[in-house]
Amino acid sequence: MILITGGAGFIGSHTAVALLEAGYEIAVLDNLSNSSEESLKRIKSITGKDFPFYYVDLLDYVATDRVFRENKIDAVIHFAGLKAVGESVTMPLEYYHNNITGTLNLCMIMKRRGVKKLVFSSSATVYGFAEKVPVTEDMPTSTTNPYGSTKLMIENILKDLFVSDGDWSIALLRYFNPIGAHKSGMLGENPNGIPNNLMPRICSVVLGKMDKMTIWGTDYETHDGTGVRDYIHVLDLAQGHIAALKKCDSDKGVFTYNLGTGTGYSVLDLLDTFSRVNNVEIPRVSMPRRPGDVESLYADCTKAKEELGWEAKLGLEDMCRDSYNFIIKNPKGYNN
Ligand code: WQD
User: Is residue 289 in contact with ligand 1, taking CB distance under 6 Å?
Assistant: First the structure.
């Protein structure tokens, strides 16, 4: 059985569907702080399969341990964590406590119960202001906000854990910019509150919740002056987790992988593609750069292709079409 922490969330729920469809048994642990039980019902509806759900916060050691007592957990995919960059700057203590202590509780329970296969949801944000692009996994890491620091600290904690006990198999997955939605339109990105990221904000404008898009910075040294990122379809990301799980099944060690497409697209590329494939207008206004933003960040994914046999298959048009399909079918997210 695979335990998915944060399995009710955006990437977690899509990974849960992929695991069930690949024949895995799963259990989901989630405190629903940035997700809803509705996504769990939709996972069951899409796959026709059932699974146990534990409404548990990883900060609750006893409740988390109960999940391992009640199920034979073979491996864990660990998504649960706070993830808003801007918010982390205003609430660092909550971010460090939630993300680090939660992970320490999880790992201590896993160690005590002999569960030593872990896939960790890390982030490309650990590359900080990368010297050059595309970035490879051996490039220097640095962080510019508490959220990114929690991800880098957890990567280092897990490396130290392996040094202390060579019996562990740990995959550190550095996501770039996950967007898109399940092809059915039943699962998608459903952020609570006002979104920060580009795609959810485009969706808010298209739904009329915001009157125009703000383009943060048009004076970057990029092909059109706007910021460049490596957008990856959440369905490709889900498959990357299955590939990493198989790696943990076959080898012991700590393995770090970029999960991106290897192609960088600008803000205007995304806006114009979204508008074209969905035949919608997206009013916009240009503003100065957003503090903390890097100019350009996209992945070299050679290592994941060579070692995991994984590569992204869906393109920007799929990401835009599928995100739009989800919001049209769920204008109020999971609160329809
Ligand atoms: C993308 C581009 C903005 C909003 C963050 C985290 C990263 C990961 C993904 C968790 C940038 C521009 C954005 C808007 C804009 N999260 N933009 N107008 O900052 O690349 O990455 O989310 O792991 O860790 O750092 O994503 O979507 O916020 O920004 O112009 O209203 O879109 O300037 O160039 P980012 P983003």
Answer: no
